[in-house]
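Protocol step 4 of 6: structure prediction from sequence.
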Amino acid sequence: SLYGDDGTALSNNYGVALGTAFGGSPPAGPAFVCHIRHSRLSRAKAVINTTDSYVESNEMWGNKRDFAIQLGGGGTFVTNNQIVPGELYGIYLYNTSGWMLDILRIIGNYFDGSYKEIFTGDGIYQKASSGGILNSVIADNSFWNLNGSGVRFENVQNSRIVNNNFVDCASSDLSNRPD
């Protein structure tokens, strides 16, 4: 288990960082095939800027953060997690290269926005300037009582978003959202 501090700002990087630092120099060698399994992160976030990774069977609470998970590389599998989004997003799909995030699999997760004292943003968000997603599957997820949208993408190509369950999403006044 990892419990982060309250911090002074939502964007504080308390949590787990795997792969190349965003906006930093490339590492001396490749970083790939990272695993986060059977873990609990609270008041923390996981930043995974690498390819061929696995995030499975975890409790990922982005409370008091901007997001719970940031994915910056393709070939990543996110399965069977309970994800409490941060104030902006649960899973934030973004990379600084502008390349498409290829072959993502986000399957069978529970995006939990059930806590009144925790503002929860979008379940999954993909920013247009990150290039978009390609050849990906977002399926069999449950999005429950989120203040933001369940899924919000700005560029999707040759991908399937199917068989997801949305209950009481976008429950906040969108004019008051922190983004």
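Step 5 (inspection) to follow. The mean pLDDT is 84.
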